[in-house]
Predict the structure of Methylmalonyl Co-A mutase-associated GTPase MeaB.
Amino acid sequence: MSGTTVGLTSEREIARLISKVERGEVTDVAGELAFGTSAGAHVIGITGSPGSGKSTLVDVLARQMRADGRTVAILAIDPSSHLTGGAVLGDRVRMSSHSQDPGIFIRSMGTRGSTTGLARAARDAVKVLDAAGYDIVIVETVGVGQVELDVLTVADTVAVVLVPGLGDTMQMNKAGIMEIGDLFVVNMADRPETSRFVRDLKQALAVGARHSHTDMPPVCCTVALTGDGVADLWATLREFDERDQASGRRLARCQEQQSRELTRRIENQVMAMLHQTMDTSARL
């Protein structure tokens, strides 16, 4: 879809199918897709603690991507309202500056009172957006719990957003998020403690890289409110995508995701059969 836009009718179809996925009405997303199979979107996961400026960063980053001619779908995994069951940060309220851009699709998904099935629904929604032909799918998660970690397994590249002075590195280490980050974004980098924070972060990442025998992930500094550093962040994300495609890592990751998905489906089918057998036995 590079250089093109999604038509209004297609957007409605996409929204309708994602709604069905959220409600658990679709068990086979591939069978429901009416607009093609995987188109090879670059799926970018963006996570971090609440208050780290992720939504503002995603907003500015999407604008940078659009300026580069890319079409973008944003899937925001948000906390839910206890009254309505909908996402608190509504997709038309947040990032409203993109509302007139046909090259950006924004959708929020909430837990609706229970996290059960949210990770699966989010993964299936990414499949829908990929099949719709968007060049880039951004998955933004709120918080760093197990559900968010499960959602991020669908991403090709995971960016962890941190803020100086909030003790983020300690919290992220406890949550295990540091292990899945491909790159780290120090947002609000205009704070006076930024230099020391970046130095400490790089030291922690270097230790982790030595233990896991991997390269140290890059660290980007941004000020989302002003846009400073966002162009460099986008350039780094592009480099990840180009390198992963050239090395075959993207394909290998896709195959791994498909294998995990098949395993989950088999497990769910077996559990459903067991429950059905137990119910039948109880009635006899």
The longest strand covers residues 42-48. The radius of gyration is 19 Å. DSSP finds nine helices and seven strands in the chain.
